[in-house]
From TrEMBL:
GO terms for molecular function: DNA binding. Residues 44-141 form the HTH hxlR-type domain. This is Transcriptional regulator. PANTHER family: TRANSCRIPTIONAL REGULATOR, MARR FAMILY (PTHR33204), TRANSCRIPTIONAL REGULATORY PROTEIN (PTHR33204:SF18). Keywords: DNA-binding, Transcription, Transcription regulation. It comes from Halorubrum halodurans.
Length: 142
């Protein structure tokens, strides 16, 4: 087979593929519109998860709440976050179902935050990340 034969075959296949893409058909005549759309529209679960918990402050707050229920000011001290940032992060985590908020109406009024079952389910993830960091991030141990 000559290089011209290969070039001609590739051009024909490329032409069929190009035409098929415009009509939603593959080179074999199959309809691929739904397949292509579902592949593009389906988010990766890892990326989706990171979007939910992946900001620096969300991770810090989730990690601190692994130790049990905390008042707002305790979290503020433990995380070194400013009040506005911490309030926003706690609202986001509550909306996402990771954190519960409990108000105590007695004087002085206190707001407590704790992990939901969904939030508690992240404990093994934090353990694994910690073990990975000890093994692979030598500068963290220095």
């Amino acid at each position: 087979m000559s290089s011209q034969d290969l070039t001609g075959t590739d051009s024909a296949a490329e032409s069929a593929t190009t035409e098929g893409a415009a009509t939603g058909e593959s080179a074999t005549g199959e309809d691929t519109t739904d397949e292509a759309a579902s592949t593009v529209d389906t988010p990766c679960p890892i990326v989706d998860s990171i979007e939910q918990i992946g900001s620096q402050w969300r991770l810090v707050v989730l990690y601190e709440l692994q130790n049990g229920e905390r008042r707002f000011n305790e979290l503020k001290r433990e995380t070194d976050a400013n009040a506005r940032t911490l309030s926003r992060v706690l609202d986001d985590l509550q909306e996402s179902g990771f954190v519960d908020r409990r108000m105590e109406e007695d004087a002085p009024v206190a707001t407590y935050y704790s992990l939901t079952d969904k939030g508690e389910s992240l404990a093994p993830v934090f353990t694994e990340i910690g073990e990975w960091a000890q093994e692979w991030l030598a500068e963290c141990n220095a």
